[in-house]
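Hi R.,

Here's the chain you asked about this morning:
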Amino acid sequence: MSAIRISQIQKKIKQENLDLVVVSHLDHVRYLTGFTGSAGLLMVGAKSAEFLTDFRYSDQARKQVRGAKVNIVKGDPIAALKDFKRYTEKNVRIGYNGEYLPVSGKERIEKMLPSALMVSADSMFTELGWVKDREELNNISEAVRISDIAFDRILPLIQPGVPEKDLAAELEYQMIMLGSEKRSFETIVASGYRSAMPHGVASDKKVRKGDFVTFDFGATYNGYVSDITRTVVVGKATSRQKKIYGIVLKAQKAGIKKVKSGIMASKVDEACRKIITKAGYGKQFGHGTGHGIGFYVHVGPRVSSISEDKLMPNNVITIEPGIYISGWGGVRIEDDVVVTRTGGRVLNKAPKNLLEL
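And here is the predicted structure, written out as tokens:
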């Protein structure tokens, strides 16, 4: 599979009239080669691919890397570029992804290869990993399964007096015990007034009776992630809580129903946003409806009102509308959805009815 993915980059190299592309972002390196270490550089040419790493990862790289020749270098891989004659030739055109290679990294490469011409190749990486193969779908499905089970296991612990951080720690522990490599992003647990914060990562605040509690979290399996959000109530829900929750759930279901290949992602956002706006809470839904997931938690396609992306078969996207009322609380509900030719296939099994704990 790695050889196929690298060959796709090589086709683009020819199209863009480049000699080489430097892949520095480790998630991209893993996607293209299978390498899971924390130091390495992939150099892809029109007919070649070489992976550079140091002694610490020599055995790991030789075992994991597929589709590229492994070179064990002394010290930093960027510094070692000057030792490869084929990279130091005059006017070699090297593409790079400016979104993930910082200016300092680009300057270091230019210092090591003063005769090379660095060319922006961001477009080559734009849709990298958007369409999933069967193995990728299986990995994401397993990450989702782990998240669903972990959430079910912590439900009895959501009680008055329990700090948000404790719930986050237990949730992450359960995911690890179920086979997750790591959390896919910093776990959000936001209760009461803090549930109005879309990115309210777990704090020392203790859960209180009557609170909304929003959980936004994910597992990682074989490098692929899940991203799920559920909102519950501690105790009996008020009529206002039921109303807000019902609006968000209706919007989320409408978004899922809109999903199918060939449709503009903005139409999915529109389906969710229309319901929330009609209910009078449009200003309280201030973020996009979703995003793609894959070998990390934010890939394309983007699901928002300004997105120009079109959904394709085997994209995996999130559908996560929300309503956030400052000083009171908020609700967000999120599933991971596989795009098919006939609709959207929801991967999550965790209940979406309002849980009163």
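One quick note: Residues 15 and 28 are 20 Å apart (CA to CA).

Cheers,
M.
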